[in-house]
Amino acid sequence: MKIFKYIPKIVLVLAVLLASSCKEDLTEINENPNGVDPNTANPNLLMPTVMTGVGTQYLKLGYGRIAGVVQHTQEDAWKDGFNDYNWTEEDDEWKAWYGFLRNNDLLYKRSTELGFTFHQAVALTMRAFIFGTIADLWGDAPYTNALKGDAGEMLPAFDSQEVIYKGIIEDLKQASSLFATADVSTYAPGYDVYYNGDKLKWQKFTNSLLLRYYMRVSSKLPDVAKAGIEQIYTSGIYLKEASDDAVMDYIGAASGDSWPTAIAFDVSQSNWRRRRPAATLVNSMSASNDPRMKVWFQPVHIRWVSDATLKTGMDEFVRKNGVIQSGVKSLTEQELREQIAAGHKFTRHFNPTLYKPTRADLFNGPLNPNEYVGIPAGMIDPTYYNENPTTGQQVQNQHASQLSYDYQGSKGGLLKARLASAAETAFILAEAAQKGWAAGGAEVHYNNGIKQSLQTWGVADQYDAYVKAVAYKGTLAQILEQKWIASWTAATEAWFDYRRTALPALVPGLAPASRALPLRFIYSNNELNNNGDNTRSAIDKLEETNFSGPRKKNSQWSKPWLVQGTGKPW
After folding, report:
1. pLDDT at 258
2. Could you give all domains of the chain from N- to C-terminal order, each with its CATH number?
């Protein structure tokens, strides 16, 4: 879906919203003769503003630092906030999600006033998605009295996580009913950047979000979750094919419609290069010869070769096509990329009997000679991993894999923000069936989740071989591991699954002082300063843990309602 044609209109809508926020006594001065009154705004113009903002922000989480939490990726330098969960307040994130809600609220109000049932259902779905993400990330949050600043509600109370989840489930149920009979004649083609006005696909997306949130609350509200999931499964209306996934394309426009790491901040592209696959994910995929690994990651540029004839512990210099390059301990990523593309092969040899790590205090295990090598989670200093000769600020680890060069691009192909998928839906149903709920066969759903994920990443032709390697044996751990893999670039879902199930059994590294994976985002000082009583009330409801640290209850390691009393994840 092309987004660039909306940009002038989106800018116009934002100008309208800004103008509408001005005080009454300034209206005449600030009145724009070329602007559009929000009371007459066209819902078609509002939709892409909401959708692109939500898609972009959701991907930034799932491809960004949350991928570090669930050990999809690690950074091999400047890694405190990514690998070690050294997080501070989340004010910008909070403002972004509530900003989307304000625009979406106008979309909902205008759609309701005009009787645009399709747009109204879209707005309800997006409201549920946004509020659900806020509750997932922080816990309690303004909900019932949010977005009522024009009615004088400047310091809204925080609703409980339970109230928010119940509310978004009701919104999604209403949206699904509206989509079933919605009049799409009011939709202007091109303005829906997810489904281009296909109301059946929207209803499938909405019902899949219902499945997501029913399973999210299944430990706390099991009867509600069971009945809800069984009802949706019986309806048969949910995401079943990868072609129905809720995705947003990136077009690579200078306005910001680009993949998050497309634009390097320096000539050497270090900001992109230091994002590496995590050993946890690479090792799991390697063990089953997962075909997606070659889509997502690059082989190591210089592979270690075990050589018992070597007279020393390891080569000092690089070998090119088997010939030692005297004096050359390393090459730059750019040099290696060009020469490997030209057909040259680079290696270094080591004698496993004689080899001893040069930095034993920072080293995780023996040399890794595999074709694909990930960075172990939570290393004290990952720049040294696998005897990398370029450490510290110059890090260009030639002995660890990088992400696929596709992720250095800006548009097209695999670069999509994925809000929900058929693969995720299938794994939810597999988990429900594994619990004994009336949701079909667990193995059938498990296999379908794998199939839809392989379809998404263009390797469906290797399904038969792969599904044999990971054949279902009836365990929840298998379901959650495959769902964790399939959530690549949408790692928030893997995080929330881990939080309620402790699966996959992710092990934190040595570096995080807490020695545990985080559970939530931190309420910001801005909220404490401006809405202090309500924010402090929400903080008081969090459960402090042994890992909470100096922030006490307002810590990334404190438990929100969703996992209190469950014994999960630790």
Report:
1. 85
2. 43-239 (1.25.40.390), 263-408 (no CATH)
